TrEMBL record:
Catalytic activity, reaction form: [thioredoxin]-disulfide + L-methionine + H2O = L-methionine (S)-S-oxide + [thioredoxin]-dithiol; L-methionyl-[protein] + [thioredoxin]-disulfide + H2O = L-methionyl-(S)-S-oxide-[protein] + [thioredoxin]-dithiol
Listed Pfam families: PMSR
Gene Ontology molecular function: peptide-methionine (S)-S-oxide reductase activity
Class in the EC hierarchy, top level: oxidoreductase
Domain Peptide methionine sulphoxide reductase MsrA: residue ranges: 2-97
Alphabetical list of PANTHER family matching this protein: PEPTIDE METHIONINE SULFOXIDE REDUCTASE, PEPTIDE METHIONINE SULFOXIDE REDUCTASE MSRA 2
InterPro entries in the cross-refs: Met_Sox_Rdtase_MsrA_dom, Met_Sox_Rdtase_MsrA_sf
Domain of life: Bacteria
EC code: 1.8.4.11
Entry annotated with the keyword Electron transport: no
Entry keywords, A to Z: Oxidoreductase
Protein name: peptide-methionine (S)-S-oxide reductase
Species for this entry: Kuenenia stuttgartiensis
Length: 103
């Protein structure tokens, strides 16, 4: 997946991120436990950082105890081949993802 701001804005993408996983869990998502399963938003610019922080503050104002961290994007590693196209390989079954309208 490639982020293309001409198709979807960073804010739209980040809002959806908060609505398809549980941003209140610390170092886990569903049955998966560990630091690699933490909830984190990565940014490449100060504008993106401010957007992520704004959305977190909106959720906190609604009573959510947000565990999501906001981190500067660093080096990117592609996932192993068996993770590529995961959605289609697993019969289009989402894994640990549910949609919950939060905004």
């Amino acid at each position: 997946m490639v982020f293309d701001p001409s198709i979807v804005s960073y804010e739209e993408l980040t809002r959806l991120f908060f609505e398809i996983h549980d941003p209140t869990q610390i170092n886990r998502q569903g049955p998966d436990i560990g630091y690699q399963y933490r909830s984190a938003v990565f940014y490449n610019s100060e504008e993106q950082k401010k957007t992520a922080e704004k959305l977190i503050n909106i959720l906190k104002d609604k009573g959510y105890k947000i565990a999501t961290t906001v981190e500067k994007a660093g080096q990117f590693w592609f996932a192993e081949d068996y993770h590529q196209d995961y959605y289609h390989k697993t019969g289009k079954q989402p894994y640990c993802h549910f949609y919950q309208k939060r905004f």
